[in-house]
Amino acid sequence: MDSTKLSISEAARRAGVRRNTIYRKLESGKLSKETGDDGNPVIDLSELARLYPRAVSSAGQPPELFKGAGANSRNGAGGQADFALRELVDMLKQDKASLKEQLEQEHERNDRLMGLLEAAQRKLTGPMHTDPQPVTPPSPQPPRGLWARLTGRA
Q: What is the C-alpha to C-alpha distance for residues 22 and 86, in angstroms, rounded to an integer?
């Protein structure tokens, strides 16, 4: 890969944000991407620096990686080991955040499913609706004679 093209993970590391943030910037059009030789999305370093100026330093590494490091850790094997450890910690933090987000989504899904299950259970165990008692029609009255109909007597 060309040194000015960064993977999503590397761009997130340099910018000091999570990969999800980079993906949101890509989806909203605030950041553009290209497709690398391997078919994966890549971000041009200058494009990343437009949104995250601190992503680029004179050494090509994010400046916050070296904050607080001693003079002997900036050069030589100690500096490389510190850089590798910080990079590993950053990757683990991103993985943790991703897993936390997935767990929250699963909790929401489980809550929705429990609600549906409880509603179905209430329908099944609620008061049973039986067929209403059949209504018996009143017994037929014998037909009234002409005199009863005219005088209104029974």
A: 20
